[in-house]
Amino acid sequence: MSTPSKALLTPPASGFSTTPVIQHDKRPAATDDLSLTRCNLLRRDFESLDEALLKHAAPRPFSLSTLAAAISDRCSPTAVLFYLQSYPPEPTKVTLNQLVENKHPLLFYAAERNSADIVRILLEFEASPEGCDTQNIPVLAYAIMRSKFTILNPLEVVKTLLARGARPYVLPADMWTNYIRPPPVEPEKESLKSTRLTRWCTAQHRRLLAETMHLSIRYYLVKATQMTPILARGLQLAREHNYLQLLKTPYLIIGQHYACNIVVEQVSSHIGMKVEVPLVLTFAGLSGHGKTELATRMGELLDVPLTTIDCSQMKSDSALFGPPLGYAGNAVGSQLNNFLATRDGTRSVVFLDEFDKTDQEVRHSLLLVLDSGEYHDRRTNKLVDCSKTIWILATNLGDTQISRWYREHMEDLTEDQRLRVPVKVLTNSLKAVFVNKFGAPMAGRMASAICPFMPFDLREQAVITHKFLLGLVEQVRRNIDTSAAEKHFPGHIHLAIQNDGRLCEHMAKESYISELGARSLKSAVNEVRRSFYTSFVHSDIPVEDHMNDGPLTRYNIQLQPVAESANEVIVVEDGMTEFFEGYDNVSDPMQLDKDDAVMSGMMGTMTFDRKADDSDSDV
Prior knowledge:
With 619 residues, the protein is an alpha/beta fold. It folds into three domains: 49-226, Ankyrin repeat-containing domain (Serine Threonine Protein Phosphatase 5, Tetratricopeptide repeat); 232-452, P-loop containing nucleotide triphosphate hydrolases (Rossmann fold, 3-Layer(aba) Sandwich), CATH 3.40.50; 458-573, Orthogonal Bundle (Helicase, Ruva Protein, domain 3), CATH 1.10.8.
């Protein structure tokens, strides 16, 4: 495969920094020459970048160029948020969807930074997730292709854009609909060569996408096609009730379509309809299939505090809530008691893990607070309002019924067919199991929102394996730091996963144990980590910090045949990875356009005019 020209994707640079913001993972030393100064932020030597940006917030006129330069120059997400909050919302919304210097939407700069936090902030201020530059290249495509030269994983940016409505079909569908297969460089059918949404995609762009659209990205593109579109009213209510991040739930865990849908529908309607009693969600299913992962993210999704209680040791009312008033130890309370008391009348999340291991006394003590939200602080006997508390009860109880139901009704279906299978019969059978184990009073409270967590199929197992591998990839991509505090020696490394779909599917077949779920796949990735480290230490060259100033050392994770029909996963060193190093490495900057005119309107000409901030539209 030929290597695409680096001119295809140059930094969204301000045009004045000769080093891209992400090169070597550090800020360039010559900060006085960066774009903010050229955009008349007039940053003094003693000012931080954030201080310089906020000094130019309201009442000064809103400047799209200034904000773009600040993002490009690595200001913090918090500074971006404060800057935007200083202006009236409606005019800001209009301005955010204009082109910076009549070339590129502001989201391109956040994508260049690979900052999902800044992308999320801009989207919350109603920047369009489908923004395109003057060549009609969508920000979703740019975020993916740019990783060719940064060697940074764009998955979080991609998921954030998809969750807010970016259409996956702006990318050629034949490259990702069969997500286990590597993306083909050439369209396989004449009819797939171009659609209205993909006319921007030239042969050069397809080559970049084929290299950068990894397995997890392809999976979430497919998942986005399975989601019900979020329309204007839904976004309006989510924004007003502060649950915008909840819409990202299906992109947090792999598989579990039914559980994610139930969570989003139950939580959003409960908040949107201002229901004045607690919401109880029951997460049921096999261990290692996403219950804890989703539950522990609920506080983040709703921007509220969360506490996790391990119920495996809860054998009494006092263990859960603390001793009643007048008993020894009463003044201390308990983790749950003190959490509820501090959240009196406000939204919060309580996660009761391994709830099936509680005793009857514990369950009985929960009945009133789960039903009406009334509770008395054990330390003071003061009435506490828990009506806005969201309770998540996680249990392995019912895993046999879920597994059997999955085998009988879903295992042999395609992914699209599974989405249409009703689960009412399954949830009814789980209610009967809960009544038998917990008794009717508690089962009645658990039955309002039962979220069954299904077994993973082979393709989902492969994506989970890839997720764990990406964790290893990102760990070794970090810079080397030999200081006594860090001792991070395996760093500044490009760990490439070869033929990721086939490799991860092979690892899943070899390692997945349904009773352990994702934990069994994590163990398989630990073997890859061991193999990498063994290869890494087999060198006579000491690790030194100055290596961060050079190209990345490349290692490949790949399948190696060991018999006629058997393979094993190995890690081998494979030289160095060169990546984009700025305009200084081009003898004639104008040659960038000549090399590839296709992208010259995208990032290659992304420079700020040297003009004052007040040339921009006022807000």
